[in-house]
């Protein structure tokens, strides 16, 4: 586990081809700046504890970054010519998402509405007292990872002049404004916001055009479709001539249809004349957005960029792959894959001088960056590799993938098997069946540290994309199939296929785990099958009646005339209602601040299992300061994985 | 002597006794109303809006001294609102939903009694409920003008395992689905569709006896199904106790202030607080 705590992860990067300068963020080494040609590398720092979000200025002479030296994260700028660093913002709240203006004179960023309000004597005490009581009168009062949203806690767009540090707030009001981008002439900003929508559906967002100044005018560019933000945000881009904005949109969800709709790219004209779809699904590219569950790369980078010529670059999923696509400006709506195969691309930098930095990973290779030359259509060797020492030691396990037809002939399921070292026919190994969350995300050819840890401990790790998973087409992605038992059948069938194809897997010693939807499916399998020896349920959905009101993605009961009937139906679909059927040991892991799958569900699940099976091993662990995810703190994360390993060691060996 | 004694009181009081015919239990009920009735400036036939609430007390005997100290009661009477207080023989958190349902019915009968005595205006009745009493009152929402619920318990299918210590083994059921469905059906939230009255909810976020998800359930169900009806939820982010009297002083004051303003707005025509 000590290797886990020292495992290096990247959190963003930028590349300036003219000077061959690469900057990236390592969670262990901070911001690193390297001249690729000369090989010189150094740390960029303002001596804060947490620093990141580096970006080169348009002329390449300066580098901005965020540092928490002082109060909250503020913007700093490093002059690359003389080496001096200046603090540019001095706000009372931290800032995020800094973005250079096209002429480099200003920086756009996000911060709460109250960021500029100094605190008077007694304010902190009053604020703490006032802040203790939150008044809730509408939907959308909390969001996982963000917590309860205070009245002045909405994120707004601000602008700072890099010369004199003058700050002005561009937006205001009880709404968030996100994923902002400058127009080419620097006079306007495009962003997405729910400003014109009711709070009942947090996914309903529009593309807005705002004048880049305080109290500037605002225009709603789109209305009929929803701009994509959750769960995979796509920052819009302007066309080079500034006449239109390109963004990802999805069709509004019809009542009762919960399949996440396809996301396509549209070009919205600024003159209000409407928008046009840029490409149509074909055999090379199904849709724009992707939900890779384990791409493990591209944090802090974008999914959509535009070249100087106006060609569009975007990342998308296809048959379990995470690919980089190009859509030519003068093309006929066809998207061509530039990078594809048994690797993952999940982040791209700005395009400069016909080059773009891409973030990639592979099942046995942690995140690395390469430079893609758009003119020659060639990919460089990696210019930067995370966890390089680990890679050199050759201890990372590879995986093999395969497809099989579902028993009912409806679709094909894609799965992976990662074998531990020393696993052979004479020494069969126990198996951990890992189910992804979602249900729409998909496993891909990416590096998964957690799987490597379990493999290193001697467990085979198997995972698949059952029905409900995306990137394989609408039929496979159907939401209903994820919940009506067909996904469960796929997973059970996959386990049998894996054991059949890999005789070194011990089919009698399989444990099941998964988080969120994966946790739901773990619970579902535990109550509908006696196939497996032990379970670990992570941040799972246990009681749909609880999720209806206490999840940040609240449901609706309006399809039912009678609320009692609604409750009965929700309970019927809830794992907790079948607790008496659990017959194998169950470990329950949950975050204390999980607002997606409420923590109360974990308490109820544990209580129900103990109540119905007083002698069955069951354990509940609640992790502090943890939202709907695994713990971020390395020590807590180490404990989290240890708990899972110890549980499976106990009941699978 | 009598006049001096009157001037020392903070409210006036009347009493009655009610019997729950289903259980045979008897309950003492006290009406507290503004003390300036029958004195200078206030007509002796004035009727008041009234709030129904319960007070848990060992033995269930009414105790005027306790009512004099009860800040909810005094806040309301000083604002020109009467309070009909039913004395519970035990803590509110120890009664079952069935018992709460019976108690809720008795309180309306008591309101009738005090109306007949010419003190209470039955067309302006509100309720102040905690725990399962709050859930029980949802059934009578069509007889109320408004409600304030502090730490409500409205869905027993969610309180199982998250605060309640009930066990399926004691229920006689073997199917958890049946067990939870029955709990849901007898919960107050089952009557949500008839709740067309403004509701103020107050709940401590860190309460482990009656989880915040109970208040959320009622809040979201109201917004979802009765969206035109005002509902306001105050989350006291650091409070753990089920009873506001154990909260931090500033939060107690905030609760009392919000409660008073809510009742004045919805029970007193014109919304004016009496001086």
Provide a brief overview of the structure.
The complex is a heterodimer of chains A (653) and B (275). By secondary structure, chain A is of the alpha+beta class. Chain A contains twelve helices and 41 strands.
Q: Helices and strands of chain A: which structural class?
A: alpha+beta
Query: β content of chain A, as a range?
Result: 25-35%
- Number of helical stretches of at least 4 residues of chain B: 10
The Rg value of chain A, from CA coordinates, equals 25 Å
- Bulk shape of chain A: globular
Query: Quick one: how many beta strands of chain B?
Result: 8
Most extensive chain-chain interface: A-B, 45 and 43 residues
What percentage of the residues of chain B does DSSP assign to strands (E)?
A: 15-25%
List keywords for this structure.
heterodimer; A: 653 residues; alpha+beta; 8-stranded mixed beta sheet; 5-stranded antiparallel beta sheet; 41 strands; globular; B: 275 residues; alpha/beta; 10 helices; 8 strands; 23% strand; disordered N terminus
Description:
- The complex is a heterodimer of chains A (653) and B (275).
- With 653 residues, chain A is an alpha+beta fold.
- Chain A is built from 12 helices and 41 strands.
- Chain A has an 8-stranded mixed beta sheet with strand order 34-35-37-36-38-39-40-41, sandwiched between helices. In chain A, strands 20, 21, 22, 23 and 24 form a 5-stranded antiparallel beta sheet that branches.
- The longest helix of chain A is centred in the last third of the chain and has 19 residues, at 634-652.
- The mean pLDDT of chain A is 91.
- In chain B, helix 3 (71-78) runs parallel beside helix 10 (249-267) and helix 4 (97-116) packs across helix 5.
- Mean pLDDT of chain B is 88; it is low at 1-8.
- Chain B has helices spanning 2-8, 64-69, 71-78, 97-116, 131-138, 156-159, 168-171, 176-185, 212-225, 249-267, and strands spanning 12-19, 26-33, 48-56, 82-88, 120-130, 146-152, 199-204, 231-236.
- Chain B starts with a helix and ends in an 8-residue tail after the last helix.
- By secondary structure, chain B is of the alpha/beta class.
- Chain B has 10 helices and 8 strands.
- The relative contact order of chain B is 0.13.
- An 8-stranded mixed beta sheet of chain B has the order 1-2-4-3-5-6-7-8, with helices on both faces.
- The chains are: A alpha+beta (653), B alpha/beta (275).
- At the A-B interface, helix 2, strand 11, helix 9, helix 10 and helix 11 of A face helix 8, helix 9, strand 8 and helix 10 of B.
């Amino acid at each position: 586990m000590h290797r886990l705590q020292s495992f290096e992860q990247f959190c963003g990067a930028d590349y300036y081809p003219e000077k061959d300068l690469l900057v990236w963020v390592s969670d262990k080494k901070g911001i690193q700046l390297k001249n690729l040609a000369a090989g010189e590398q150094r740390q960029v720092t303002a001596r804060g504890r947490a620093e990141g979000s580096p970006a080169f200025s348009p002329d390449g002479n300066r580098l901005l970054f965020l540092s928490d030296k002082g109060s909250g994260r503020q913007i700093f700028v490093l002059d690359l010519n003389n080496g001096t660093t200046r603090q540019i913002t001095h706000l009372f709240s931290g800032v995020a998402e800094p973005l250079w203006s096209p002429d480099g004179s200003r920086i756009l960023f996000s911060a709460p509405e109250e960021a500029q309000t100094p605190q008077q004597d007694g304010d902190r005490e009053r604020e703490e007292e006032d802040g203790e009581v939150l008044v809730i009168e509408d939907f959308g009062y909390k969001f996982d990872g963000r917590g309860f949203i205070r009245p002045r806690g909405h994120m707004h767009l601000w602008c700072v002049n890099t010369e004199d540090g003058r700050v002005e707030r561009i937006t205001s009001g009880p709404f968030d404004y996100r994923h902002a981008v400058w127009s080419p002439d620097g006079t306007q900003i495009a962003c997405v916001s729910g400003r014109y929508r009711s709070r009942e559906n947090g996914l309903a967002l529009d593309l807005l055009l705002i004048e880049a100044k305080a109290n500037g005018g605002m225009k709603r560019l789109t209305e009929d479709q929803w701009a994509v933000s959750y769960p995979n945000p796509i920052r819009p881009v302007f066309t080079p001539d500034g006449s239109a904005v390109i963004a990802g949109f999805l069709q509004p969800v019809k009542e009762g249809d919960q399949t996440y709709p396809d996301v396509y790219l549209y070009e919205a004209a600024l003159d209000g004349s409407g928008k046009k779809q840029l490409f149509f699904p074909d055999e090379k590219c199904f849709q724009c957005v992707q939900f890779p569950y384990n791409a493990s790369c591209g944090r802090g980078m974008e999914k959509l960029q535009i070249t100087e010529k106006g060609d569009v670059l975007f990342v998308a999923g296809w048959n379990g792959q995470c690919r980089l696509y190009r859509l030519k400006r003068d093309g006929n709506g066809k998207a061509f894959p530039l990078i594809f195969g048994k690797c993952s691309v999940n982040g791209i930098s700005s395009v400069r001088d016909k080059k773009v930095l891409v973030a990639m990973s592979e099942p046995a290779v942690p995140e690395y960056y390469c430079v893609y030359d758009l003119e020659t259509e060639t990919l460089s060797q990696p210019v930067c590799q995370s966890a390089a020492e680990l890679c050199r030691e050759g201890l990372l396990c590879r995986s093999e993938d395969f497809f099989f037809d579902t028993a009912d002939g409806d679709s094909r399921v894609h799965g992976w098997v990662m074998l531990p070292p020393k696993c052979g026919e004479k020494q069969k190994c126990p198996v951990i069946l890992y189910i992804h969350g979602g249900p729409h995300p998909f496993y891909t050819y990416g590096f998964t540290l957690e799987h490597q840890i379990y493999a290193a401990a001697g467990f085979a790790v198997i995972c698949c994309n059952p029905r409900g998973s995306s990137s394989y087409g609408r039929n496979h992605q159907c939401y209903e199939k994820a919940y009506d038992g067909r996904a469960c059948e796929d997973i059970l069938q996959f386990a049998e296929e894996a054991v059949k194809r890999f005789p070194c897997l011990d089919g009698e010693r399989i444990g099941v785990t998964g988080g969120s939807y994966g946790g739901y499916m773990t619970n579902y399998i535990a109550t509908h099958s006696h196939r497996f020896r032990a379970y670990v349920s992570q941040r799972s959905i246990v009681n749909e009646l609880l999720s209806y009101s206490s999840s940040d993605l609240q449901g609706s009961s309006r399809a039912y005339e009678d609320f009692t009937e609604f409750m009965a139906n929700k309970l019927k679909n809830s794992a907790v209602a079948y607790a008496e059927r659990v017959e194998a040991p169950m470990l329950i892991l949950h975050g204390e601040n999980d607002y997606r799958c409420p923590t109360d569900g974990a308490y109820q699940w544990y209580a129900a299992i103990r109540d119905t099976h007083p002698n069955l091993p069951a354990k509940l662990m609640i992790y502090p300061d943890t939202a709907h995810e695994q713990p971020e703190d390395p020590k807590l994360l180490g404990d989290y994985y240890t708990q899972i390993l110890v549980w499976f060691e106990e009941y699978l060996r | 002597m009598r006049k001096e004694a009157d001037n020392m009181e903070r409210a006036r009081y009347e009493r009655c006794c009610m019997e729950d015919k289903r259980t045979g239990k008897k309950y003492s009920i006290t009406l507290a109303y503004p003390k300036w009735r029958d004195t200078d400036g206030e007509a002796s036939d004035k009727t008041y809006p009234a709030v129904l609430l319960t007070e848990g007390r060992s033995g269930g005997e009414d105790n005027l001294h306790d009512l004099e100290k009860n800040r909810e009661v005094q806040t309301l009477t000083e604002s020109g609102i009467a309070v009909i207080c039913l004395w519970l023989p035990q803590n509110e958190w120890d009664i079952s939903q069935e018992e709460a349902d019976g108690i809720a019915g008795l309180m309306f009968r008591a309101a009738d009694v005090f109306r007949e005595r010419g003190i209470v205006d039955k067309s302006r009745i509100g309720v102040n409920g905690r725990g399962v009493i709050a859930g029980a009152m949802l059934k009578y929402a069509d007889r109320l003008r408004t409600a304030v619920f502090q730490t409500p318990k409205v869905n027993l299918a969610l309180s199982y395992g998250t605060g309640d210590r009930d066990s399926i083994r004691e229920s006689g059921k073997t199917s958890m689905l049946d067990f939870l469905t029955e709990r849901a059906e007898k919960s107050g939230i089952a009557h949500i569709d008839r709740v067309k009255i403004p509701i103020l909810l107050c709940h401590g976020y860190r309460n482990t006896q009656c989880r915040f998800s109970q208040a959320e359930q009622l809040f979201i169900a109201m917004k979802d199904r009765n969206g035109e009806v005002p509902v306001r939820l105050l989350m006291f982010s650091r409070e753990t106790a089920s009873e506001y009297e154990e909260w931090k002083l500033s939060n107690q004051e905030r609760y009392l202030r919000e409660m008073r303003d809510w009742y004045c707005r919805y029970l007193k025509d014109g919304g004016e607080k009496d001086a």
